[in-house]
Amino acid sequence: MPAACGQVSRPTHETWQHGGVTPATHSPSFAGSVDSADAVLLGLDPEQREVATTLRGPVCVLAGAGTGKTRAITHRIVYGVQSGQLMPASVLAVTFTNRAAGEMRGRLRTLGAGGVQARTFHSAALRQLQYFWPKAIGGEVPRLLERKIQFVAEAGARCRIRLDRGELRDVTGEIEWAKVTQTVPADYPAAALKAGREAPRDLAEIAQIYGTYEQLKRDRGMIDFEDVLLLTVGILQDRHDIAEQIRAQYQHFVVDEYQDVSPLQQRLLDLWLGERDSLCVVGDASQTIYSFTGATPDHLLNFRTRYPQATVVKLVRDYRSTPQVVHLANGLLNQAKGRAAEHRLELVSQREPGPDPAYAEYPDEPAEAEGTARRIRDLIAAGVPAGEIAVLYRINAQSEVYEQALADAGVPYQLRGAERFFERPEVQKASLALRGAARSGGNDPLLDDVVELGSQVRAVLSSTGWTAEPPAGSGAVRDQWESLAALVRLAEDFARGRPGATLADLTVELEERKAAQHAPTVQGVTLASLHAAKGLEWDAVFLVGLTDGMMPITYAKTDEQIEEERRLLYVGVTRARLHLGLSWGLSRAPGGRASRRPSRFLNGLRPGSAAPGSGSGAAAERAVARKRGRRGPVLCRVCGKTLTEAGELKLMRCEDCPSDMDEGLYERLREWRAVQSKQQGLPPYCVFTDKTLMAIAEAAPSEGGELSMISGVGGRKLERYGADVLAICAGQEPGAGESDDA
Fold first, then answer.
1. Which of 243, 276, 559, 707 gets the highest tally of CB atoms within 10 A of its CB?
2. Average of pLDDT values for 411-423?
């Protein structure tokens, strides 16, 4: 009998490790079950075969996008079962989403290994908690809190802290992060500060809400999803008899998407394993895009340190994407920095060549959306199913203009990972406020002395949470603001197109737009954020809104945050099998100032752009800046901010903006400068300052004209040191240099 709403169902089978398995679905990748171990290996490439046949000891599979990792690990399990080396019931395969776990179960059952358990961390832990609770704790299993946001709201009210909808979601996210990183309420402020969290409220307030939320659950005998892991960890730590019972059952572990493991999940995995090492992990550090939830690639990157005897297999044969798509994906990672970048995989496409990625620049966002819709319509006319096409963007608020463009083009679409724009609560609330203001006419105090339609809308929406400046940080607050800002822009565009239009006219327009977007979504084009697209793939992918400020997004400040944005774009690129479009708009609205620039991540990859640090590109930027010198401000070549400090002017970028400096070149220049300094009896800075050497290492000039454009390289120094510097930049040994006084 089904459990009541909010209740944890008890296992109906005699053992805790079985039951509740999702029925297998047919996978077109497999013809059917196999009847011998050798048959399991048919069709696997050499690396996949190595994964499948290495059944003992720790195994680390570094699997690039589209390289068949699920195929490799399912065949590994089935090969072990068919060869008699693994008992089906002794294997636990763990992944991160119910969809992925269901797909793995389906593949295993199709191959004849249906007795193997494939679950998420939470699902596996929940079954163990249900089964062992009476023995370990006694009494009834606490009820499972399906949606913690209501309890967080009540906790806030008890603390006399009022949270709006966006803050409520973000505070809930902070509580989840604290729990998966095993941070108690009292320690949250220090931990959040150390981790650089963009908290939606004062850290002490969040800690207070967090503590009250935990007390509320205890008072009412409830647990949340993070508690499932925490309580299971607690039982396994305290009750060695229970831990040994689980270890006697599960002796072999496979963990997919290992780069997304949180500290709490890793602790649970350690307890499942005990002192054993029969563990196979699969992951790709270049697809780490959920660090804000507590996920970290450190466990994957440290695997070989923890298990020096581990077998490491790299899957780099890409069966998903064409050589053209793979080339772009590799190019993105070649520019990456940081620890994850050191472990990047160079993919090799196994497909026939296809069309080159198409880059498109538009004057504004609506033109970009309309152009994208036209290209999609052409693809559909050429025979590409609408369901095999996706439009991917950085934040959900970007969807509205694409919803409208596709609707206008008669192209069906479906939203993934977000409500339809006009069904979002903040948009519904705003629409209601606009209709109320339209009915009130001149009697609405918000509209006193406000005549122009755009100003009227801004005044009305200010009562629903819109502000002239966007909020700091990311999350629900920012998404909500972006939705309201989209309504403001829509109103401005409407007023521009229909001079004299009233609020009443606008509300009619909004209703018509809402109705037009209720088209059937069967086989529709997918609209999704880049985060929501992880793990999916399409024949054609359009990556839109690729401007600095959106990709990377404005609030990505640190080097680590910037690199995660780059990885997010990499995930987007590798979703495409055949057709890939990348586009950006130079301004927000038609007629606006073309102040936006294409994403810095595309430098050196899109036609006509220079690679980061390339001499010609950097020199050209400095030449333009030098020409501007007497006319106006010099702007940072990375973020566009006005530069004022001498050091920043020399580098042509802000001190805290990402550097594209060739560090090896910089060190060679420093070594050469030390020799020159000693020969001439001068302080090193009299040869070149550190900032000038950094500027040279970033520009890597290839000829004297480019070198002369760098601040700090005057005519005399160019004549004296130019030949040496250019030789070093070219990777050659410098000459003897001059020894007379400077």
1. 707
2. 70
